[in-house]
C-alpha cells in the first residue's frame, strides 16, 4: 500500500472516530434532557432562594474530571449572576471547609458518588444543615443517599472505546450545570445590561457597553443658543473638538451643526450667517440606556451616508449627552 493510501485510510479512520465520539455524546445529552424531572426545578429553586433571601453562595465541589467540570460551572454561574465558589474536596479536609458558611448551598459533582475525598465535605453539610445538591449517576451511592436533592445522570456509554475515560459522562455533567445556570439566569430575569456587569472586559464586555458608558455628558458639550452666528459656532467647534455643536432653545434641542454642515455651506459669508440657517434640523437621537452597538448601527447604516454622532436623550426626551462614531470604535464596540 502506498504512503498516500495509508494516509487517506488514517484520515478516514480519524474522521469516523471523531464523528462517532460526537454522536455518542449527543445521545448522552438527549438521554439527559429526557431524564430531567422535578428535582431539577427543586435545585433551581433552592439556589435561587439562597441568592435572593440569604445573600449566600453556591459552593461547587468535585474531584478529578468532575472537579474540572465544577470549575467551569463555577465560572459560568458567577458570570450569570449566581455568586459561586469552587472548593476542592481534598483541600476542604485541610481547612477550606471554613469557606462554607451557614446558608450556603453545596453542589457536588461525582459520577460514581463514591469518591473517598468527598466524605468530609458531605459530613460537614449534614452536621451544619447546609443544603447539598448532588450530580451523580448512581442513586444508591453514598453521595446520593445523603444529598437533599439528587440530579441523576443517565447511565449511557462513554465515547471512549474502552469505556474508561470520562467523556460522555463529563459532557452530560457540563450540560446539566449549564442548564442550571441558564435556568437561574432566566429565573432572575438577567438583562444584557446586567450581564455586562459580570463581563466588563473582553469583546463581550465591549459589545454590551451602553450609550451612557461611552457618551460625552451634557456639561461637556459645545452648546450655542439659536441666536448664535456661525463665527461663534466655529470658534466653539474648534475649542471643544467633538465634531459638532448643539443649537439649543433653552432645554430644547433645535438642531446640530457638524463638520459636514460647514463643508456643505462653505462660502465667503459663512461666518455672518445665523446658526439656524446652517444647522441640521431634527438630528437623530438615541436613548442613554441603549447598547452602544445600537448607536453604532444607526450611525453606520443610515441610508446615503455615515453619521458621525448621535444626540443622547433620557426617557423623558431630555438631552443627556452625545455619542460619537469615533468613541464607539475606540472602545471596541464594532
Measured on Cα atoms, how large is the radius of gyration?
Answer: 30 Å
| Poorly predicted sequence stretches spanning 5 or more consecutive residues | none
Ends distance: 53 Å
Query: What overall geometry do the principal axes of the alpha carbons give?
Result: elongated
CATH class of the largest domain: Alpha Beta
Which superfamily, in CATH terms, is the homologous superfamily of the largest domain? Glucose-6-phosphate isomerase like protein, domain 1
Number of domains: 2
What's the CATH architecture name of the largest domain?
Answer: 3-Layer(aba) Sandwich
- Strand proportion: 15-25%
Helix content: 40-55%
Give me the oligomer status.
Answer: single chain
Give a quick account of the main beta sheet: strands, pairing sense, barrel closure.
5 strands, parallel
* Number of helices, where a helix is a run of at least 4 consecutive DSSP H or I residues: 15
Structural class of the secondary elements?
Answer: alpha/beta
Order of helices and strands: HHEHEHEHEHEHHHHEEHEEHHEEHEEH
Query: How do the strands of the widest beta sheet line up side by side?
Result: 2-1-3-4-5
Question: How many distinct beta strands?
Answer: 13
In the CATH scheme, what's the topology name of the largest domain? Answer: Rossmann fold
Amino acid at each position: 500500500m502506498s504512503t498516500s493510501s495509508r494516509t487517506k485510510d488514517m484520515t478516514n479512520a480519524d474522521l469516523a472516530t471523531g464523528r462517532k465520539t460526537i454522536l455518542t455524546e449527543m445521545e448522552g445529552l438527549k438521554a439527559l434532557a429526557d431524564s430531567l424531572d422535578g428535582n431539577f426545578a427543586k435545585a433551581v429553586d433552592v439556589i435561587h432562594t439562597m441568592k435572593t433571601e440569604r445573600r449566600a453562595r453556591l459552593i461547587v465541589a468535585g474531584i478529578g474530571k468532575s472537579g474540572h467540570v465544577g470549575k467551569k460551572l463555577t465560572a459560568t454561574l458567577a458570570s450569570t449572576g449566581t455568586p459561586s465558589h469552587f472548593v476542592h474536596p481534598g483541600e476542604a479536609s485541610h481547612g477550606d471547609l471554613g469557606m462554607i458558611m451557614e446558608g450556603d448551598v453545596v453542589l457536588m459533582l461525582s459520577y460514581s458518588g463514591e469518591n473517598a475525598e468527598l466524605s468530609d465535605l458531605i459530613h460537614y453539610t449534614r452536621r451544619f444543615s447546609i443544603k447539598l445538591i448532588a450530580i451523580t449517576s448512581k442513586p444508591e451511592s453514598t453521595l446520593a443517599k445523603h444529598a437533599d436533592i439528587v440530579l441523576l445522570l443517565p447511565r449511557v456509554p462513554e465515547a471512549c472505546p474502552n469505556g474508561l475515560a470520562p467523556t460522555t459522562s463529563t459532557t452530560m455533567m457540563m450540560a446539566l450545570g449549564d442548564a442550571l445556570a441558564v435556568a437561574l439566569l432566566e429565573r432572575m430575569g438577567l438583562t444584557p445590561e446586567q450581564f455586562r456587569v459580570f463581563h466588563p472586559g473582553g469583546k463581550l464586555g465591549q459589545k454590551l457597553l451602553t450609550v451612557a458608558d461611552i457618551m460625552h455628558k451634557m456639561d461637556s458639550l459645545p452648546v450655542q443658543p439659536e441666536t448664535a452666528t456661525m463665527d461663534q459656532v466655529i470658534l466653539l467647534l474648534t475649542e471643544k473638538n467633538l465634531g459638532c455643536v448643539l443649537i439649543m432653545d433653552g432645554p430644547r434641542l433645535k438642531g446640530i451643526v457638524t463638520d459636514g454642515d460647514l463643508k456643505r455651506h462653505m462660502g465667503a459669508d459663512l461666518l455672518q450667517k445665523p446658526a439656524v440657517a446652517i444647522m441640521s434640523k431634527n438630528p437623530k437621537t438615541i436613548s442613554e440606556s441603549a447598547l452602544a452597538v445600537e448607536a453604532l448601527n444607526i450611525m453606520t447604516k443610515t441610508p446615503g451616508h455615515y453619521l458621525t454622532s448621535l444626540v443622547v436623550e433620557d426617557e423623558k426626551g431630555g438631552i443627556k449627552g452625545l455619542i460619537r462614531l469615533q468613541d464607539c470604535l475606540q472602545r471596541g464596540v464594532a
